[in-house]
Amino acid sequence: MGFGGLFEELAVFAVMVTIMATSVAAQPKPGCQSHCGNISIPYPFGTRNGCYISSDFFINCDTSFNPPKAFLSDSVLEVLNISLDDGSLRIRYDSSIGYNCYNSSGRTSDPNIGFLIKIFPVSHTRNKFTAIGCDTIAYIDGLSAADSSHRNFKEKNFSTGCLTFCGDEGDVINGSCSGIGCCQTAIPKGLGAYYFRFHSSRNHSTVLTFNPCSYGFLVENGTYTFSPSDLSNTNFSKRKYPLILDWTIGNQNCKQAKMDPKDYACKQNSACINPESGPGYLCKCNDGFQGNPYLSNGCQDIDECETLKPCNKFGTCHNTPGSYNCSCPHGFKGDGRKNGTGCHRTFKPRNSKRFRIVAVALDVGLSLGILFLIVGVWWLYKILQRRKYIKLKQKLFERNGGLLFQRKMSSNEGGLDKAKLFSSKELEIATDKYNENRILCCGGQGMVYKGMLFDGRIVAVKKPKTVNEGYLEQFINEIFILSQIDHRNIVKLLGCCLETEVPLLVYEFIPNGTLSHLIHDQNEEYPRSWDIRLRIAAEVANAISYLHSSASIPIYHRDIKSSNILLDEKFRAKVSDFGTSRSVGIDQTHLTTKVLGTFGYLDPEYFQSSHFTEKSDVYSFRVVIVELLTGKEAILTFGSQEKRGLVSYFMSSMEENHWLDIVDVEIGKDGQKDEVVAVAELAKRCLNLDGRYRPTMKEVAMELERFRTRQGDCIPIDHPKQAEVVVRKSAERWDFNSFSTEHSTNCSITSTSESESGGLPLMLEST
């Protein structure tokens, strides 16, 4: 029998075993109801006392429906399927969709709606939080399943969410749930009770005609497909979608449960499994057995001899508990298996010296022939693999814009001769094959690794997760932009690698971390004096002013924040992360893009108009100045849960004339009150909602440099009172919680939107 026939037989056997395992595993406890309508009820679940392992596994079979419907315990959760293989429970229930509606007179429904699912947690791997709307910021707050039974479920233990926008119905794409009309995000692990909250930046005033409501709900992966008609469907909240729960036995792990044999749920011929979903355990039949592992004698031996027929035509199959073996008849040797050596006849050679010599010669010749054949095949394989590898690198090089790079390098366009083309092998050696111990930071689009080149230089290598082939020319143009920048306070680009799956960028290594670490980390070795802070602010301002005014092509950075400002060995500032930067024509006044940036630093005028100007960079830089003044983060936490923007906090303190109370105590030790006041007033002007009232970056840089040298008048020029009122309103409307309060301590990911025009979304956003 050929390999094709063997694989076909194995496939048939696998299907037969799956069908048999499913029918046996669905067994209830003896004498108990096996089905409720079309739903199988396997033990440990049951429909009456004595048929389930504990009250958590009680199934209420409601016969008032035709056919009858199964409900979990005394709840309204309709059971659609029970799986013993992966410990999942598929449910559906009424009123599972939260909503928040508006009409021309304002909000018409409560934007805060809660749901409680007792006993079992919501699966964080098989469900998604989904929000629908054109002016919607939706959150889900909740408790773990263990807390939901004895605490007020409105007390947050988890929080996550997403936002959706769309200008008009033409922006919405059928089936797409990526932020335009519809968004989806993962949910926290162990969720047992949850609470929907909605916000609207414009109270739906511009989308009421086709989107009067915002909706939020949890749904099983792949069961909801977005349709633009859902935005105008006022009955959408009445829909019901399936949800997956994770169930386990008890609250002990396998090791703890085995210490109490009386209550241990895994029976004969089964194994205990610790699931990833949380506490408790599951049971599974051992290999070679099938059935219900929670019932005594529920795991039965599979007779492989009958189902698989694995032995050669001369071999005899012997079934054993959990396995089988094959034997050959007398006069034959081998293992007797179809996919093994099979059974072949034995013979005794004639007892002659000549025959033995010939036999040995044949054996030696055959062995040498096989050896040479193996060596030849291996050598040919290596040659083919090397050719394949070379072709792959060339293909990747061309796909990643290598030909365009070489053409522009040969013509020396944009000073590209300053950028080097690194080989993939060179960067693999430099980063020790991208070892986890070399990771400096990670962002939503990739990793940054520390490496050492052959010449001993320490570098930072940015490796994106994915690449969009439609932006390869913009990627090369981005390299051109960075190659033109020659400023001591901007991180220097050394080169790139284009022969990998995703293009890599190589930068100079900056050793002392970020300005965010300097301001917020409690490290006594960091210098935090006022002179140091003022010098860093002036250096950053000079760098951004250079981008705006002195570069050959004006550049908007578009993501200025303290975590994107690096510090070298002498704590001099280096502006980094140009992944979202854009070059503009000299006669251009703004870029029209979809909203992109980091909350807490984002210009409100840009958020409302989608017009990014050089004054938008000024606004973000002033947030950094306020961080330097106060030592506080851009998003503040008050009490246990309340969050507020630093800009709002700073502006309200300025208006109430007690802002010196929030100045960092480290600054107060230096006795530079006049300079601090002057810088604060400058920050206030730059945080104006109306960009026309903000100074340019060049003016800011000159004023900061004057403060540093203690020359001239340190008091900024007053501006109209109307502008100050606008600033206060701007700060208040940006005072809301961050999208997710549950994140990694090593790497945080900033949620952004793709730019609509220009630029390259391939670069990492280091945070």
TrEMBL record:
SUPFAM superfamilies found in the cross-reference section: EGF/Laminin (SSF57196), Protein kinase-like (PK-like) (SSF56112)
Keywords: ATP-binding, Disulfide bond, EGF-like domain, Glycoprotein, Kinase, Membrane, Nucleotide-binding, Phosphoprotein, Serine/threonine-protein kinase, Signal, Transferase, Transmembrane, Transmembrane helix
Signal peptide: 1-26
Membrane spanning stretches: 357-381
Pfam families recorded: EGF_CA (PF07645), GUB_WAK_bind (PF13947), Pkinase (PF00069)
UniProt membrane topology term: Single-pass type I membrane protein
Compartments, record wording: Membrane
Biased composition (Low complexity): 747-757
Gene3D superfamilies in the record: Laminin (2.10.25.10), Phosphorylase Kinase, domain 1 (3.30.200.20), Transferase(Phosphotransferase) domain 1 (1.10.510.10)
Record's keyword annotation contains Kinase: yes
Reaction catalyzed: L-threonyl-[protein] + ATP = O-phospho-L-threonyl-[protein] + ADP + H(+); L-seryl-[protein] + ATP = O-phospho-L-seryl-[protein] + ADP + H(+)
Segments of this protein annotated with the region Disordered: 747-767
Keyword ATP-binding: yes
Domain EGF-like: 301-335
Domain Protein kinase, residue spans: 434-707
Coarse class of the protein's main subcellular location: membrane
Protein name according to UniProt: Wall-associated receptor kinase 2-like
Taxonomic classification: Eukaryota, Viridiplantae, Streptophyta, Embryophyta, Tracheophyta
